[in-house]
Hints:
This protein has one helix spanning 37-43; strands at 10-14, 21-24, 27-29, 33-36, 47-51, 60-73, 76-85, 103-106. By secondary structure, the protein is mainly β. It has a single domain (9-89), classed as CATH 2.40.240. Strands 1, 2, 3, 4, 5, 6, 7 and 8 form an eight-stranded mixed sheet that branches. Strand 2 and strand 3 (27-29) form a beta hairpin. The longest helix is centred in the middle third of the chain and has 7 residues, at 37-43. 28% of the residues are buried.
Amino acid sequence: MWAMATKRKRIHLIERDNRMIRLDGDLWESGFWSVPEATAKQLVGGSILFHKKQKEPSFFGGLILKYRIQDKRGSMGQVIFTFQFQPDHRAVLAEGGRWSQEMKVVLPV
């Protein structure tokens, strides 16, 4: 269950524009996000969760398999995460920590 996985590294994203693209079966791409490459690299193997609002539970998400940078500008690129949909990534609240604009990154030590 998700409650036992709260120590998992994860990124919560506010997604209002439905930028996710289904690649094949349960394999998806996340759309474009301004995330430092070092952070994207750390998130591989963790979770990605999509929300409509910060205080609402996630409506979609999964396990991050890899990432790629679409357009690099300075130290920040437009990152696209490839992830595998997981049903238990729905209805998850973004607990603890603070949101930074449209995202919240949790990297437990």
